[in-house]
Amino acid sequence: MAFLQDPPRLGNGWDDDPLLREYVSRALPPEVGGAIEPELRELGELAGGPLFELQLQDLKNDPELISWDPWGQRVDEVRISPLWRQAERLAAEKGLVAAAYEGTYGRHARVHQFLLNYMVQASLDVYSCPLAMTDGAARTLLDLGNRALIERALPRLASRDPRTAWTSGQWMTEHIGGSDVGLSETVARRGDDGSWRLYGRKWFTSAVTAPMALTLARPEGNGPGGRGLALFYVQARDEGGRLQDIRVDRLKDKLGTRKVPTAELELLGTLAEPVAGLSDGVRNITSMLNVTRTWNGGGAVWGMRRALALAKDYATRRVQFGAPLSRKPLHVDTLAGLQAEFEGAFLLWFRAVELMGRREAGEIGDADRALLRLITPVVKLTTAKQAVAVTSEVLECFGGAGYVEDTGLPLLMRDAQVLPIWEGTTNVLSLDTLRALRKGESLAAWLGEVEARVAAAAGVPELRTPGEAAVRAARRAAAWLSEAGADEGALEAGARRFALTLGRSMELALLVDHAAWCHAHSRGPRAAAAARRLAAHGVDEIGVFSRDDADLLGA
Ligand code: MFK
What we know:
The chain is of the alpha+beta class. 54% of the residues lie in helices and 12% in strands. The radius of gyration is 24 Å and the shape is globular.
């Protein structure tokens, strides 16, 4: 019998993930942790078993746009994959959005919700995208306080009943303005009856299957830029599910997130309602952006976790040069580096989630509010870059099999590659980090948090070196910022290195703190090893970079 290689397998994501279990014990009161453990375990079983199998069977089932019915009627129907149809039901029933809005766990509601998503999303083929926008729409309506729209949409957006649950779209990007949303050309016209209709073209509208959307348009007569735009609510479909005065021109042929039906849309006089006045659309949609950026951090973290789970399992099954890869020092060393990056990202993301939950529960002070504003872009940009690097390396851990489509492995990397792009590129998010700092005292809060986390580990000698590295890097970032001062060119050129240093130094500080907790609670030395390894990778990206050299090389 010729040799056949055992494929990688997944276990239960709850049982197989010590960092997750430590985090739940550390971050949640025991009664909350105990109450949610059964649902986390159940989702872990589903994600590692039947959903993973369906995901592999579903590899070639991309969504399809049916523009016309057989008799010539324009229908613009989008058919989604079988796994996405299951995901629709599961997302509602398991409360993947609703858990954040039900108030069951107060300030811990967001941690609960994102733990649920962490357990299952890697098996749902980026169904996280419509859920992120649904969550963002719910939060935006609440933040902006439009009672009529809240009453109409919130019970649907946060529903646990698949028959009544809605998802929401977020239609922002236009041909002219990808990052520079203020350039948007869509026009809002008021009719004689006082109703508003939208005319224009939306160039990237993810998950066009949603019954509603939040979008931006410029009321006729308004000035240019983001201030001249207004945020509108669109009821995209009628009772029968048919699009209303909206044409789907085509679905995008994308590198990854292929199950997400991302469309080009034409708004042909689409009925719409202003959500919060007739201007300041960009500012008003930022509630949504901050929620979807937090989801993006989640996508990075659960994507890395899935990739590592497969790579580590495979290493026990693949024998080369006389031993399983799991006993080859160089392979083990490679996986160790990836695990450390993942652990830092996990803790950074959940720190943002904790702050978000406290803000929404009304239990947040000014310093933490400022920290939340700053950590949101930093989490998004830092974890997205880590996810691309980790998933790329994981493919290599499989040799040629990692490059072959029907193993399902290339998906890991393709779906990660979108994370630094959508919801704001790394550079746009780096500039948002500077924007956040201009608005508040958040750098002081950031340094305070890094120092406090490291100080919490003062009694554990083996954490001293990584702790010092975290504090040193965060202080260096702060010193760079004050040296750059009012030099806008220098600030902009260095913004990415600055933001990544903030992100990586916070990851290390959180990991040091977590490792000290593990030490005190007899949870073993793994987290301390992760802290040492992350420190060895380096968390200070500031460096010495000449603007003149950049002009010579980058122009
Ligand atoms: C795993 C699942 C992940 C989720 C998947 C979802 C898929 C969805 C696909 C997409 O839709 S991708 C489209 C995403 N597009 C973007 O993210 C746009 C990227 N561009 C930016 O974020 C720019 O920074 C921005 C458009 C916001 C800049 O525009 P402007 O007009 O130059 O903004 P300006 O004047 O700086 O800011 C306007 C106001 O908003 C200011 O407040 P004030 O008016 O009070 O001064 C800003 O402080 C405020 N602001 C801007 N960004 C903010 C913010 N406030 C809070 N948070 C923010 N992030």
